[in-house]
Sequence to fold (334 residues):
Amino acid sequence: MSAPEMLRPPQDVPQPVLQVRDLSVLFPARRGGVAVRAVERLSFDIAPGQTLGLVGQSGSGKTTAGRAILQLQKADGGSVRLLGRELTTMRAGELRRMRRHMQFVQQNPYSSLHPRLTIGQVLSEPLQVHRAVPANRMRERVAELLELVNLDPAMMRRYPHEFSGGQRQRVVIARALAVNPDFLVCDEPVSALDVRTQAQIVALLQSLQERLKLSYLFIAHDLAIVREMAHRVAVMFRGRIVEMGTADQVYESPGHPYTRLLLDAVPVPDPALQRERLRRAPPDMRFLEGDGGGCIFGLDHAGAGTAEWHELAEGHGVSCRYWPQKAASAPGHI
Ligand SMILES: Nc1ncnc2c1ncn2[C@@H]1O[C@H](COP(=O)(O)OP(=O)(O)O)[C@@H](O)[C@H]1O
Ligand SMILES: [Mg+2]
Fold:
């Protein structure tokens, strides 16, 4: 079965909001360096009102994938269709108009708000750019947006430094919602926050999704949070999706050894312990520490064609050129 076929959600679902096919990003070599294939042939759909969680270690290409989907990063190939319309070949003016349908919620609420602008100015800006509301309705809409994220509308006169991290992230979310988007890329939206605030922001994103019928690409290295947020989960390793399925499928019956390794790492916040686990890992997996080959088994996929999707259950698959021969002998939980 080809990847796109495999990746289509089960039948009887409405048209996907987002369709990504074979999306690739190559960062050319800088002087003295090597080119980085940050994203390689990514394919998936996101249905209306649903969340796809994108997980993987730092450096696996998650942010680059999110930016390439939003056309903030040039792709080297592949297709991105939002609401049925191809973005990768769109002219600048048309793309600008499409931007109101797709927004970005970034990781760091400290750096993503301009310190000299009041919260009211921050929230007015996208409304002005997209001419989303007439000038005489601006204040009203800004107040509405603050209420939407459970902040006091009186806060519109204040500056970002007067806010806590959680409040700032609420403002960032309100700014993304200002233009009534259909789809948000949330890139590690709670990673910079303390655990209690994380839970509040996750709950907020969930309730907004329900109320506004939003679709999310939810990027995180924290698998516990992704489990809570995501309907479907894609596991990324060195630029590729190596496993994808419903959250239950991926978390309850992970098929790919890399997914198992990630899941095993969940309750281990201690980097020293994590390193020790990797050290004890079977030789096939030790390369995870370094810059080994292109696949989990240390074998290089480059130039060898694409890895095949192997369906484990309906809507659940793994990608590996050497499946199942190698995987059969691969370790389970370590
Ligand atoms: N602008 C860039 N130029 C060159 N290499 C980059 C650039 N941005 C990211 N990379 C590289 O691409 C890979 C994926 O990075 P990134 O998408 O940030 O991963 P993640 O978000 O999963 O941590 C990394 O090897 C990173 O060093
Ligand atoms: Mg990132």
